Structures are given as C-alpha cells and as structure tokens.
C-alpha cells in the first residue's frame, strides 16, 4: 500500500481572505519578534523555534493553518514542516507579510 504524502498550498493574499476571516484558522507568523511587534496579520501568533514544541502539542492538526513570513519564501519550508508533523490543511502565503501589508485588507 502506497501512502500519498500530504502537501501544502501556496495562496495569494486575495485567496487567503476567506481563511483570514475564519475564526477556526490558525495564523502563524514565523518572522522575528521585533518584526511581528511592528506589524502583523490580525489574530496571528508569532512562532519561533523555542515555541514550536508547545505549538505542536497544543494545536488542532485538523484546523486550517496559514503560515506567513517576510516575502513568502521561508513560509514554504515551514508549511512542509507542519505537513510532515501531521497538519492536514496547510497554506503558505505568497508574498508574505510584505504583500499583505501592501494590499491593506
């Protein structure tokens, strides 16, 4: 029996709007704490390497997970990591916070 690996999906800011409006979506900012404090997507949590174990232990793996970084590059690696750790519905935000902040949603 072959098990098909789960994958994440890269989405643009406009596509992410429905997820951002869904209170069940877990929004994760993987930028540094200073950048997060300077501006972030509403209702997001700032996640660092120090917090990852607690996050994995306490987060529903069936909840949609939207991950963003500065420009949408590192969030792809993070999305793959979360998929490999059992998260079912994982999205990486194309363009990251930079693109989000320019859209003014």
Overview of the structural elements:
The structure is a single chain. This protein has 105 residues and is α/β, with parallel strands linked by helices. It has one domain: Rhodanese-like domain (Oxidized Rhodanese, domain 1), CATH 3.40.250.10. Strands 1-5-4-2-3 form a five-stranded parallel sheet. β4, α4 and β5 form a beta-alpha-beta unit. The longest helix is centred in the last third of the chain and has 11 residues. 30% of the residues are buried. The model has no long low-confidence stretch (mean pLDDT 93).
What's a quick, concise take on this entry?
With 105 residues, the protein is an alpha/beta fold. The chain has helices spanning 13-21, 33-38, 52-58, 74-84, 96-103; strands at residues 9-11, 26-29, 44-46, 65-68, 90-93.
Helix content: 25-40%
Work out the number of β strands: 5
Q: Main β-sheet: number of strands, strand sense, barrel status? A: 5 strands, parallel
CATH second-level architecture? 3-Layer(aba) Sandwich
CATH topology: Oxidized Rhodanese, domain 1
Based on CA atoms alone, the radius of gyration comes out at 13 Å
Helix and strand topology:
Layout: E1 9-11, H1 13-21, E2 26-29, H2 33-38, E3 44-46, H3 52-58, E4 65-68, H4 74-84, E5 90-93, H5 96-103
Parallel strand pairs: 1-5, 2-3, 2-4, 4-5
Throw out a few tags for this protein:
17% strand; globular; Oxidized Rhodanese, domain 1; 105 residues; 5 helices; single chain; alpha/beta
């Amino acid at each position: 029996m072959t098990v098909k690996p789960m994958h994440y999906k890269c989405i643009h800011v406009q596509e992410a709007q429905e997820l951002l409006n869904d209170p069940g979506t877990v929004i994760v900012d993987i930028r540094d704490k200073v950048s997060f404090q300077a501006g972030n997507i509403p209702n997001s949590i700032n996640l660092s390497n120090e917090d990852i174990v607690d996050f994995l232990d306490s987060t529903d793996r069936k909840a949609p997970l939207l991950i963003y970084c500065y420009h949408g590059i590192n969030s792809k690696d993070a999305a793959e990591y979360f998929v490999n750790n059992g998260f079912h519905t994982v999205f990486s935000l194309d363009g990251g916070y930079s693109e989000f902040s320019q859209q003014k949603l």
